[in-house]
């Protein structure tokens, strides 16, 4: 069984100043998604599904087919691709939206857009985050081990110290888990940074507590998940409940952690927390770009990746 990789690439990059998912950051114009797909294919993924917006779907399809023409999965079969769109009005029938709302409904809504094209265990990643080879290997192994199961999910937890920025403070969701390694909660912390004393501090967004000492090795979410396909139906039911309360809202969003939390706390499933030794990096603001370009150049120089990648 070859698992599927679902890439969340519908973000418009308003803070970044352009479409991050199409920005060439590698030595030969490779995007972050290109490196993710390279690592995913090496780990055994056989199908890539892109979540995009309608206004750039055609450009994305053209770029992908030109770049990946002839690329094969590790079993020698052609790598499969599918493209689905996330739009504001793609919601269950019977709901009336606020006419002033502009943005779609968040990451869990984006995942739901792929329910008709994914029928096997699958991974979810952000299109503008670099996760590293080990992370994809761990996730592919988990997917293969859960081919015939349901109600079992996972999140790849990155050590907090491996996700900090050199350009300022960050926000991270810190994972809590039980003695079996199953996720019990994700607590958002803001303004996280390592200070001059070498200690990592942040502000707990739930309690309001400021300047909290955080464990550098605490596992945090970078939106890298593994799901069995029953997740779609369970998440869709929760989305209906979410819209019952929020259909008229302008900015409320339906996020993956919220959907998973509802499933776990209702006893419909469990989510295993899997740690990775990989270092994360990504682009949120335009100022992040030079550092990411330098990191890819260094990885190529070290022989981690070929250049050009494809």
Number of beta-strand segments: 13
* Low-confidence regions: 13-18
User: What is the CATH architecture term?
Assistant: Alpha-Beta Complex
CATH homology superfamily: Spore Coat Polysaccharide Biosynthesis Protein SpsA, Chain A
N-end to C-end Cα span: 25 Å
The gross shape turns out to be globular
Describe the structure.
Residues 13-18 have low confidence and may be disordered. The chain has helices at 32-43, 54-68, 107-112, 133-145, 231-246, 256-265, 289-301; strands at residues 4-8, 47-52, 80-85, 122-126, 129-130, 152-159, 170-177, 183-194, 200-204, 212-214, 219-227, 270-276, 281-282. The strands form two sheets. Strands 1, 2, 3, 4, 6, 7, 8, 9, 10, 11 and 12 form an eleven-stranded mixed sheet that branches. Strands 5-13 form a two-stranded antiparallel sheet. It has one domain: Spore Coat Polysaccharide Biosynthesis Protein SpsA, Chain A (Alpha-Beta Complex). It is an alpha/beta fold and 310 residues long. It is 27% helix and 25% strand. Helix 1 packs across helix 4.
Q: How are the elements arranged and paired?
A:
Elements: E1 4-8, H1 32-43, E2 47-52, H2 54-68, E3 80-85, H3 107-112, E4 122-126, E5 129-130, H4 133-145, E6 152-159, E7 170-177, E8 183-194, E9 200-204, E10 212-214, E11 219-227, H5 231-246, H6 256-265, E12 270-276, E13 281-282, H7 289-301
Parallel strand pairs: 1-2, 1-4, 2-3, 6-12
Antiparallel strand pairs: 4-11, 5-13, 6-11, 7-8, 7-11, 8-9, 9-10
